[in-house]
């Protein structure tokens, strides 16, 4: 079994490569994992191009939803984006926080952070910053953020409960998150689950939806709700890299098990040992 550190290093290496690729290359892959599909479309993401603040230089085609659309960001908010990549969600969030707010992007791939900082410089934004860090242990003071967003990133992290615990830590009391991610509602074939490329491609390290939502509740969040949910159909030309023809037929004969969701939750006004 691949250790957590090995998985992290593999993802970091892959996303360092993605930072240097064109968007079209990323869109023809499984969440940017590499050129594993000959059809040029992204099997995960929604269309960002009409959203205010969208920046084509910052869009690497890696998402699986539009969390900033559902995050209820207000003027003056402090927003943290987990796995901020080249900065697209941060720049969209910045249009919502305005000049009185602040946006912090966190990514553990230095090449991505460099790319995001360069994009912020070109846009002349002085209240958007990018930090290198692990989202299981963010380089952020506790009770900092009004809102946390993330787009197709937590599924890459082996210890998802640890991420939700740190989200809880960095959010202010009564703060909230809106996170788009990949979850499962059944079993994936073992050949897909064990494929290194599919770890970087968001699928192999996805977990059961009920378990995912259970972690959020266990950490202490409340008012948990699904804002969006859609099926993810993996094209045959990706499946054939991992499964033979009979296995593909068997896989497709079952109900779809891979879903993109956007989930919302709030941090209570009081911690376990505090009073309002």
- Overall structural class, as computed from helix and strand content, comes to alpha/beta
Unreliable parts: 23-42
DSSP E strands, number? 7
**Run of helices and strands:** HHHEHEHEEHEHHHEHHE
Number of domains: 1
Helical content stands at 25-40%
Span between N and C termini? 45 Å
Descriptive keywords:
7-stranded mixed sheet; 34% helix; single chain; 276 residues; Rossmann fold; alpha/beta
Blueprint (SSEs and pairs):
Blueprint: H1 4-19, H2 23-27, H3 67-70, E1 78-82, H4 88-97, E2 102-107, H5 110-123, E3 128-132, E4 145-151, H6 160-170, E5 171-184, H7 190-193, H8 196-200, H9 209-219, E6 222-231, H10 236-239, H11 245-253, E7 258-266
Parallel strand pairs: 1-2, 1-4, 2-3, 4-5
Antiparallel strand pairs: 5-7, 6-7
What does this structure look like?
With 276 residues, the protein is an alpha/beta fold. The protein has one domain: Vaccinia Virus protein VP39 (Rossmann fold, 3-Layer(aba) Sandwich). 34% of the residues lie in helices and 20% in strands. It contains eleven helices and seven strands. It has helices at 4-19, 23-27, 67-70, 88-97, 110-123, 160-170, 190-193, 196-200, 209-219, 236-239, 245-253; strands at residues 78-82, 102-107, 128-132, 145-151, 171-184, 222-231, 258-266. A seven-stranded mixed sheet has the order 3-2-1-4-5-7-6, sandwiched between helices. Strand 4 (145-151), helix 6 and strand 5 form a beta-alpha-beta unit. Helix 6 runs parallel beside helix 9 (209-219). The radius of gyration is 18 Å and the shape is globular. Mean pLDDT is 82; it is low at 23-42.
């Amino acid at each position: 079994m691949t250790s957590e550190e090995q998985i992290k290093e593999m993802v970091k290496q892959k996303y360092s490569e993605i930072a240097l690729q064109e968007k079209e290359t990323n869109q023809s892959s499984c969440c940017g994992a590499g050129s594993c599909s000959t059809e040029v479309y992204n099997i995960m993401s929604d269309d960002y191009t009409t959203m205010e603040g969208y920046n084509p230089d910052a869009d690497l085609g890696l998402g699986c939803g539009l969390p900033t659309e559902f995050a209820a960001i207000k003027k003056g908010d402090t927003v943290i984006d987990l796995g901020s990549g080249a900065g697209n969600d941060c720049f969209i969030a910045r249009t919502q926080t305005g000049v009185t707010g602040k946006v912090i992007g966190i990514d553990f791939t230095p090449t991505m952070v460099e790319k995001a900082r360069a994009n912020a410089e070109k846009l002349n934004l002085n209240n958007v910053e990018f930090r290198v860090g692990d989202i299981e242990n963010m380089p952020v003071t506790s009770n900092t953020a009004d809102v946390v967003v993330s787009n197709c990133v937590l599924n890459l992290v082996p210890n998802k409960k640890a991420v939700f615990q740190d989200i809880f830590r960095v959010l202010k009391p009564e703060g909230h998150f809106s996170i788009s991610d990949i979850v499962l509602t059944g079993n994936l074939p073992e050949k897909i689950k064990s494929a290194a490329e599919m770890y970087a491609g968001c699928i192999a390290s996805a977990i059961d939806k009920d378990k995912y939502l259970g972690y959020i509740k266990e950490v202490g969040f409340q008012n948990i709700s699904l804002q969006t949910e859609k099926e993810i159909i993996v094209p045959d030309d990706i499946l054939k890299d991992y499964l033979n023809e009979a296995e593909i037929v068997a896989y497709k004969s079952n109900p779809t098990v891979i879903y993109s969701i956007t989930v919302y939750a709030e941090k209570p006004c009081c911690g376990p040992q505090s009073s309002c």
